[in-house]
Amino acid sequence: MAGAAGRLVRGAAAFAASLALVGGSAGVVRAEEPVYAIQVEAALRLPPAGSGDQQPFYHADLGRPKGDVPRDYVFTWDFSELAGFVDVGVEPHSGDRCTVDGTRMTCRHRVVDSNPLIPTPRLRAVPGAQDGRSGHLRVTAESEGVTVRGASTLVRVGGAELLAVRVPLKSRPFVGEVQRPRYSFVNDGTLPAGRVLLALTVTRGMDLPRTAGNCEYADLPGPVETGFALCSFEGPFEPGAVYRADRGVEVRTGERAFVDTLKYEFLVDAPAVRERLRAGLVLTRGTGPSAVMREAGSDLPPADRLLDDAEFYEPRARNTTDLQVLGDTAFAAPGERFSVDLGVRNNGPAWITQRGAGDSGSLATVWFTVPAGTKVVSKPDRCQAPSADGKVYRDGLGAPVYTCELAGHVLEDGRYGLRFGLLAEKAVENARGRIELLGGADQFRPDDDADPDNNTASVVVNPAEVAEGTRGVLAFVLGATVIALAGGAFVAVRRRRRAS
To answer: 222 and 205 in contact (C-beta within 8 Å)?
Structure first.
């Protein structure tokens, strides 16, 4: 017995040494400097003084490293380029945090939560400001110990204002189907637009065939947005007129399509706008005939077909996916802590994502019923402990049942992992829990699943018998191994065998 324990200790020592080597080699990789950066709209259009048009709504926010502690900032807005034709003031909700001195507005602001909006100046065109006059509004920030990248936005009085028109596209396209929407826009501004850009972006289940000669195409890094096209149209495009492409620009429903998004946006061409859209992309020119924007009259489409920013097409493809839940088996003696690795695997062919930008709905819900004789001592953040009898579980631990909302996306060959830490309170032979997949709020439905039989799996725990003479050695060795791998969260008594 002592020989077996000795061999185990020597093996664990060798394994720990190999971990140290791996850790050493990984340590030479330099960590990237944390990024602090301000984001603001690329352009703002102010209505001329006396106009009944609504003043633009805009906001600026601060991108920070995840987990950054509350921090004090000084934000400085420089509006020297707007002097003489834009009146700049402090918004009432900014209170005494902001002051204006000459052509600068300074704001002292403490960012404390996950909504890092920062104070912005009030902008109004002054009476008599020339239609089309423009300048840049710039913002910088300072905070102790960090460098913050500033931003700027182009502010224009009047000028062209492009509204995208919703184009008719199929709500339930077939896989492989190619549609050719003839995109359209309205110039709802006060000046002609000399050249117009059409920016197209698609998510993972759609493709943009490179067939339009006046479009440049690029692959995006994904995993959600994967395709981009930038099309250019020569003007002039007069105020109050509607324009429509004389031929379609192709979009294809791909093999992994499910619920996807095509975003299309019209913008007035300008060097800064084009630079922002093309930044970091490798674009190739389309090989087919060019589309041309033709005037289609002055009768504006109904308001529900116009959007002053970008328009979105979100079909639900005639496709299926196979989400399979993954159970686990474990062995543990009473008093031992261990973990079970549960989850959901996508067997394809379609990927799954939340529908629409900023959608708060879930992809799907997983129910986990805890095996008898065990108690949950740690859980994924996305999992909650519901209770029909109204009992409150401290920190969500110790409950008999858990629900986990899956959010974000699961690729066509991806997996959503759910690790639970358990405590074996007493020995129960073949203690069997259960993991079950249910439909989401607006995404995954039972009739979308290609194989509903694998939507349920078992989570089985059996007693582990550890010889008295080696219990301490085993606990020490395996505990050290787990500490090296995962911070010492759990001690596994015996290697688990996956149940798939």
So the answer is: no
